[in-house]
Amino acid sequence: MKKIIILFILLSISNNSISQSVIATVYSGPHLILATDWSRFSTKSIIVEKVDGSKSKTYYFSTPRPINPSAMFVEGLDNDFEQGSSVKVYILKPKISGITSNQIQATVISGPHLEKTIDWSTYSNKNILVEETNGQNQNIYKATINRNYNPNAMAVPDMNNDYPQGTIVNVYTIEDLSFLNNNIGIGTSVPVYKLDVCGTIRAKEIKVDLQGGCDFVFEKDYKLLGLNELESFVNTHKHLPEIDSEKTMIENGLNMKDFQLKLLQKIEELTLYTIQQNKEINTLKKKVNSLESKSKRK
Q: Residue 191 falls within a domain, yes or no?
């Protein structure tokens, strides 16, 4: 049942969640100036809004300046906000919804730690999702161990400055998820892809971005393999040209995007073979009709 819940969590990433805000100053360039290191904002989508909330704008790429870590370049910022104005800055993140199990509320304290009068041992070395009580500023961490000198506290090293001390947060366990080098794993502790699932995935639709298709098959200079050559290849190798053998598929798995494109290519080639054969059939029909006409005249 746990894996079903976790899959629902991941597939329910939709609306936006925002992080704790920081106050910064709009400067020429266009830049945001803040007396801190902007590295945690690097290449993130951010929301910038006026302190009074009267104007808000989303930017999809931000870059801290190596020569001045207190400055961050945000393209287009100077067109939307006045120079020298104070603004709130948030990191924009996908919001995870549908979590229904093992929720508790705890307090963020120094360390960084989470504190609550419970037995934290069941959370040790587990993956947890932490969010503010309004559902914003969601983050996923690897909890380490509860502290012997303070059994009501659990260390969460990566939490750093994501929440001010004293913040009340919701905490969820998500045991079937693993995180490694920014990869997410479900049913595997060593994910090697952005999303690595050891199990069955159910979805209503999957959309894949492509850099090209197979229409080259219909170009005039495309060299279609002759049927005799194709027959010889199939008899020798027991699989279609440019399609991996059964043994290779079993050993290495399938890259679905490449495989679907190759199947489409073979379907288009089959269409050309069919058109070619239809022309030959029509030619033979004409010859047969001609012979029949001559035979009748005799």
A: no
Read off the tokens for 155: 């260390």
- Going through 187-250 in order, the beta strands assigned E by DSSP cover 195-197
Q: Which residues contact 181 (CB under 8 A, 6 or more apart)?
A: none
CB 98 within 8 A of CB 8: yes
Return d(Cα 265, Cα 254) in angstroms, integer: 16
Residue 257 maps to a domain: yes
pLDDT of residue 6: 36
Q: Identify the helix (H) or strand (E) that includes residue 246.
A: helix 246-252
pTM: 0.48
**Same-domain check for residues 79 and 129:** no
Identify the burial level of 77 via C-beta atoms within 10 angstroms of its C-beta, where 0-12 means exposed, 13-18 middle and 19 or more buried: buried
Encoding tokens for residue 196?
């690595």
DSSP state string for 34-58: -SS--GGGTT--EEEEETTSS-EEE
| 7-63 pLDDT, tens digit each | 333 434 344 555 667 888 888 777 788 766 677 777 677 888 888 888 888 876 667
What's the structural domain count of the chain? 3
> What is the C-alpha to C-alpha distance for residues 96 and 6, in angstroms, rounded to an integer?
11
- The segments of the chain whose pLDDT lies below 70 read 1-20, 35-37, 43, 60-62, 65, 93-102, 145-149, 175-182, 189, 298
Q: How far apart are the first and last CA of the chain?
A: 83
- Which residues in 133-244 belong to E strands, given as ranges? 139-142, 146-147, 150-155, 168-173, 177-180, 183-186, 195-197
Count other Cβ atoms within 10 Å, centred on residue 93: 17
Residue 230 domain boundaries: 215-284
The answer as to whether 294 is a domain residue is no
Instruction: Report d(CA 273, CA 228) in Å as an integer.
Output: 12
